[in-house]
Amino acid sequence: MAQSLTINFGKASPVYEDDFVMLEQEEWGRNQGYLTKGHTYAWLSNRLFHSELALINCGSLDGSFAKYLFVYPSRADLQFTSGVSWGELQEPQVEELEYQETVQCDLQDTIKLKYPARQIKRYEWLGNAYSATGEVVPRPAVSISGGEISLAQRVYGSLQVQYLVHRLRCRYQASPRPEAVENKLQAFAYAVWPGSSTHIEIEPPDGAEQGLCNSSVGSGSISGLPDVPSSVPPDNDHVYIDYCTMKART
Which of 11, 163, 207, 208 has the lowest CB atom count within 10 Å? Predict the structure, then answer.
């Protein structure tokens, strides 16, 4: 179920030696992946008292998950093909956003930023600028050259830059590979442009490969815990669970 998307913008663009495409996966938030103690208690409460079960936080019950992939071409008119080795990609959405970054100047002419920059919105020197001999010198002007920071003079110093970034956002839907014995969720995202290519491995949520996200109402289980009673007699105000066997005492 590999899928690729060809990205073309307008007429054919020239090929430059420093063209590139950067790939990035949307980060997993905190408390996503392995079941927390809170989810464990909620599951036990559901099995014992039929209380509402908290939503799982690591994809779907069948192991599938959805995340955004971000594609950053070095220039807006670069033609390239991107895709995944397994899963489904939706049509990309073009985005422009501002990103702020602090860089250290170490007597370079140019400084590479985290993302390819389209335009500098603002910049600020954090403290003085220093020459190679350690003398305080005027802070040099800053500009964009080939998606990188260009300094009018080589200096030591710290520079905070706010710049405009162009990217494509693609929704990626993953599902287990039916023929795979292990690494069922393993997949790669790639991009190919004239003269080169790049790829990243798509990261599933923690615990997904080990099947630790299999909680469901009524018939689910949590790895490492034995079965507990599915119901409790209504006339019992208190239920005592044997610590060793995890069964209700009668």
Answer: 11
